[in-house]
Design a protein that fits this description.
There is one protein chain. With 250 residues, the protein is of the alpha/beta class. The protein has one domain: 3-Layer(aba) Sandwich (Rossmann fold). The protein is built from 7 helices and 7 strands. It has a 7-stranded parallel beta sheet with strand order 3-2-1-4-5-6-7, with helices on both faces. Helix 5 links the parallel strand 5 and strand 6. Helix 1 runs parallel beside helix 2, helix 1 crosses helix 7 and helix 4 runs parallel beside helix 5. The longest helix is centred in the middle third of the chain and has 22 residues. The chain is globular, with a radius of gyration of 17 Å.
C-alpha cells in the first residue's frame, strides 16, 4: 500500500460503505489499513461482503456486515439501528451503490427510470438522512456521481446520466444544508473504471477507448486512483465539491 502518512490516521473512526462490491472492497481494505472500523452493507452479495469482512478482521479492525437496500428507507433505518448498536457513531459515509445498464432511447421504460432513480438518488439520500443522528462535526459524506454529470454523456445511458447528475446536485445541496452541523459532503465523478459484468468487452472498449489520453490506463491503476480520492476526501476541509476522476473522458 502507498504511504499515506500525509493524512491523519483513521484509528477509532467508523466508516460505512454502501454497495460497490468490487471497488468497494478495495476502498474498505485501504480505510481499514488506515485504522478505521468498517460497516459493509450489501443488497444481495452477502458472501462477498463476509469475505471482505474476514480479511479486515485480520487487521484487528471491527467490522459489521449488514443487509441493506439503500433505495428503501425502512431497510436503511434497520441498518442504521444496527450501526448505532455496534458503534454508537458514524464518522464517514461512502456511498458506492450504483446501476450501470445501457438502453436505447426508443426503448426506455418506466422501470429504467425507476431503477436508476431509486439506486442513485434515493440510495444516496436515505443513508445520509438517517445517519445524521450518528454523525458529529467533522464527519464526512462521500457520494459518487459520474463524469457524465459534468461532461459528455455515454450514448445509450440516458437514465444513468440524468440520475447521476441528480447525485451531483444533491451533493451540493446537502453540503449547504449540513454545513451548519460541521459535516463535509463531497462527490467523486469518475469515468469508466471497471467493466460491469453485464457489458460486453467490445462495448467496454468503445467506452474506455474514447479517452483523449493516448496512454494505456490499467483497471488496477484506475481503481487505485479512485481509492486514493476516497481517502483524500476523508480528510478534506472543503465541501460541496465534485472531484473529476475522468481518465481522459470529458
Amino acid at each position: 500500500m502507498e504511504n499515506y502518512s500525509v493524512y491523519k490516521n483513521l484509528k477509532g473512526k467508523t466508516v460505512w460503505i454502501t454497495g460497490g462490491k468490487r471497488i468497494g472492497k478495495e476502498v474498505a481494505y485501504s480505510l481499514a489499513e488506515l485504522g478505521a472500523n468498517l460497516v459493509l452493507s450489501y443488497r444481495s452479495s452477502e458472501k462477498e461482503a463476509e469475505e471482505v469482512a474476514k480479511k479486515i478482521k485480520k487487521l484487528g479492525r471491527k467490522v459489521l456486515v449488514v443487509q441493506c437496500d439503500t433505495a428503501i428507507r425502512e431497510s436503511v433505518q434497520r441498518a442504521v439501528s444496527q450501526i448505532k448498536k455496534s458503534f454508537k457513531r458514524l464518522d464517514i459515509l461512502v456511498l458506492l451503490a450504483s446501476v450501470f445498464k445501457s438502453v436505447n432511447l426508443e426503448k426506455i421504460k418506466d422501470e429504467d427510470w425507476d431503477s436508476n432513480f431509486a439506486t442513485h438518488v434515493k440510495g444516496t439520500f436515505w443513508p445520509i438522512q438517517l445517519s445524521l443522528p450518528l454523525m458529529r462535526p467533522g464527519s464526512h459524506i462521500i457520494t459518487v456521481a459520474d463524469r457524465t454529470s459534468i461532461g459528455k454523456i455515454y450514448p445509450g445511458y440516458l437514465p444513468y446520466a440524468v440520475t447521476k447528475s441528480a447525485v451531483a446536485a444533491l451533493t451540493r445541496a446537502l453540503a449547504q444544508e449540513l454545513g451548519s452541523k460541521g459535516i463535509f459532503v463531497n462527490s467523486i465523478a469518475p469515468g469508466p473504471i471497471l467493466k460491469p459484468d453485464d457489458i460486453s468487452k467490445n462495448e467496454w472498449q468503445k467506452i474506455r477507448g474514447s479517452s483523449f489520453i493516448k496512454y494505456p490506463i490499467t483497471d488496477k491503476e484506475a481503481v487505485r486512483e479512485f481509492v486514493d480520492t476516497v481517502i483524500r476526501l476523508c480528510f478534506v476541509r472543503s465541501s460541496g465539491s465534485i472531484y473529476p476522476l475522468d481518465l481522459g473522458h470529458l
